[in-house]
Design a protein that fits this description.
This protein folds into four domains: 82 residues, Immunoglobulin-like (Sandwich), CATH 2.60.40.10; 101 residues, Immunoglobulin-like, CATH 2.60.40; 91 residues, Sandwich (Immunoglobulin-like), CATH 2.60.40; 84 residues, Sandwich (Immunoglobulin-like). The protein has four helices and 36 strands. It has an eight-stranded mixed sheet with strand order 23-22-26-27-20-21-25-24. Strands 3, 4, 5, 8 and 9 form a five-stranded antiparallel sheet that branches. The chain starts with a strand and ends in a 6-residue tail after the last strand.
């Protein structure tokens, strides 16, 4: 409070009567002028319930804060950072608008605006007060693998929400296993007052751990609007084996909960997605509560060392082991192959399950070959200059799924039959 004493002496004034009049203030009363709390309150910063953020680059966000009384000297604290000038991210656009440039990760932190006058103000909106909205929850989340090298499709289901509700709020930020996904979130209506969100992300977001942690944050709405969901990932518990029976292969998945009496959306992604038939009679069927079997042509099964198993609690790649009782092998006690130099001939190699052989090579040279219908014999052609010099060689049989098989070959100075 400031107290000031004022006094004044008026001079002569000319009145209409033109008679001189003298006026004098004899009582010098003190006047109390207040630099009041009310004045400071009038200059205090205000933040509107319409904070918005936009992506600027891969991992940078620009936040627009509307309000009032944003004077020079205003600063923002977000996380452990203080922003108070353009060089570190704060630009006061006008008395009614300021702009903040921050890393995307900072959107998950709470923020406070320190105004030049008045108290500090949280950078927070109240959807309960403005729209009557309570925090949503994530009812389900999953990762679905796309084609090789194209990453995954993330699918989330928000319950107790509508599309209109979601669009009223700041754009949500998706985090997967501690990494922020800046891909555009597609939104569509779901059943029973729910909303589906989906986005395409890279393979680097998926870890070979016991699960996938999703976090969906609606910035500037408070901690209750940071939604989390942890999926069960079957990759640690599941395993698969292939059983080859001529032209047909059965891929058997064990370790899950595949009970056919309970309808669950189990499917297998191989050359395409195979789903369980409602009557359990399709190529993918439940054989036992913990055994799922997919029957496909051997020529298709041989192309894959992994299948992608998609289940109600999560999904992921599962390595397919070979049935060792039916593994590709050479015939025990097979004789060493002997041919003459510069001969133009063929050789026969005996074994079991040789239909898995993808390539036959002599050194760096590919040899033409054929496998019989039983998969017990390979005939390889030794033509051209493949046998130019005498010596000891190896014919290599490449399966593509395990260590190659080696067959010794002796090349003599002259054709043994000549």
């Amino acid at each position: 409070m400031v107290t000031q004493t004022l006094s004044n002496w008026s001079g002569w004034r000319v009145l209409l009567t033109r008679a001189p009049t003298e006026t004098k203030w004899e009582d010098r009363q003190p006047i109390k002028a207040l630099i009041s709390h009310a004045i400071e309150e009038g200059l205090a910063a205000e933040v509107d319930d319409n904070i918005q953020w936009y992506l600027a680059g891969d991992q940078t966000a620009v936040v627009i804060v509307p309000g009032a009384n944003f004077f020079t000297g205003t600063s923002v604290i977000i996380g452990d950072k203080i922003l108070d000038r353009p060089e570190n991210g704060l630009v006061i656009k006008s008395e009614r608008s300021l702009q903040i440039t921050i890393p995307v990760s900072a959107l998950t932190h709470e923020a406070v605006l320190n105004a030049r006058y008045g108290p500090s103000v949280p950078l927070m909106m109240d959807p309960v007060k403005k729209y009557g909205l309570r925090p949503f929850s994530i009812g389900n989340a999953e990762l679905v693998q796309l084609s090789a090298g194209e990453g995954y499709r993330v699918k989330l289901v928000l319950v107790s929400a509508t599309i209109e509700d979601v669009k009223r709020l700041p754009s949500p930020l998706l985090e997967i296993n501690g990494r922020f996904a800046t891909a555009t979130l597609d939104i569509s209506p779901g059943p029973d007052n729910s909303v589906r969100l989906s986005a395409r992300v890279g393979a680097e977001f998926v870890k070979n751990t016991s699960g996938t942690l999703f976090r969906l944050t609606f910035p500037f709405l408070g901690k209750d609007w940071s939604l989390q969901f942890h999926t069960y990932d079957p990759r640690d518990a599941l395993w698969a084996i292939r059983c080859v029976d001529g032209t047909t292969s059965r891929l058997q998945f064990s370790g899950g909960f595949f009970d056919s009496e309970i309808p669950v959306p189990w499917s297998v992604l191989l050359d395409k997605e195979y789903k369980i038939d409602p009557e359990n009679k399709g190529p993918l069927k439940v054989v036992a509560p913990d055994l799922l079997e997919l029957e496909v042509p051997t020529e298709i099964a041989d192309k894959y060392d992994q299948a992608f198993l998609i289940g109600p609690f999560g999904s992921g790649p599962v390595s397919i082991l070979r049935d060792q009782s039916k593994a590709t092998a050479l015939q025990p006690g097979a004789k060493t192959l002997v041919v003459g130099a510069n001969s133009q001939t063929t050789v026969e190699i005996a074994g079991s399950y040789l239909s898995t052989i993808k390539q036959v090579r002599l050194g760096e040279k590919d040899l033409p070959f054929a496998v019989d219908s039983e998969g017990t014999k390979i005939t390889a052609g030794l033509f051209g200059d493949a046998l130019r010099a005498p010596g000891k060689y190896e014919i290599t049989l490449v399966t593509g799924t395990k260590d190659p098989l080696k067959v010794p070959l002796f090349v003599t100075a002259a054709n043994p039959g000549g």
